[in-house]
């Protein structure tokens, strides 16, 4: 049974010796959290920090995403293949099903906006958002950071549609920023 279960998820496994969940991709410990736990963290952060909450969540995603992008590129070597790899990692991590539009690259850098759709986005499942505005600030930062790590330079990410605001998926637009 344990051998069969190990094959279900090649990226995460329970190490019976250490009694820990291991992330084989990023070579670290993992945890499992549920929606209630995430929603409590997000809601408390937003309540405590008021207007700064979205910026803090975006920055947390950006910082972590940069690490993920760099490690993903090192693991796969090709930025486009790394996107497929990270889409699958996100699916197996329980974050949702990511679909990235065809990328326009010039000399290995993103030369036009990319659209990322996330179906069944873990981070969007919260009590219905009555404002109608997207609210996945962490994922927006995460996608910008991953793009920074994969393609170099700086990227912004804007969420155009959100499950929590009634859309069928969360849709993000990632674009390289110009530095003057």
TrEMBL record:
Domain 4-vinyl reductase 4VR residue range list: 113-176
InterPro entries documented for this protein: NO_sig/Golgi_transp_ligand-bd (IPR024096), V4R (IPR004096)
Entries under PANTHER family matching the protein: DNA-DIRECTED RNA POLYMERASE SUBUNIT I (PTHR35090), SLR0144 PROTEIN (PTHR35090:SF1)
Lineage: Archaea, Nitrososphaerota, Nitrososphaeria, Nitrososphaerales, Nitrososphaeraceae
Name of the protein described by the UniProt record: 4-vinyl reductase 4VR domain-containing protein
Superkingdom of the organism of origin: Archaea
Source organism: Nitrososphaera viennensis EN76
């Amino acid at each position: 049974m344990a051998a069969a279960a190990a094959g279900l998820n090649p990226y995460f496994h329970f190490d019976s010796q250490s009694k820990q969940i291991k992330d084989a991709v990023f070579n670290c410990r993992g945890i499992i959290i549920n929606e209630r736990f995430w929603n409590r963290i997000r809601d408390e952060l937003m309540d405590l920090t008021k207007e700064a909450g979205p910026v803090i969540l975006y920055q947390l995603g950006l910082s972590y995403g940069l690490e993920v992008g760099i490690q993903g590129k090192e693991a796969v070597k090709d930025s486009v293949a790394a996107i497929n790899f990270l889409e699958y990692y996100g699916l197996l991590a329980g974050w949702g099903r990511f679909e990235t539009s065809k990328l326009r690259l010039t000399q290995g850098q993103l030369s036009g906006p990319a659209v990322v759709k996330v179906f069944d986005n873990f981070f969007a499942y919260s009590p219905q958002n009555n404002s109608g505005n997207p609210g996945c600030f962490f994922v927006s930062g995460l996608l910008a950071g991953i793009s920074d790590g994969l393609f170099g330079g700086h990227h912004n990410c804007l969420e155009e549609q959100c499950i929590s605001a009634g859309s069928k998926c969360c849709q993000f637009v990632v674009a390289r920023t110009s530095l003057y």
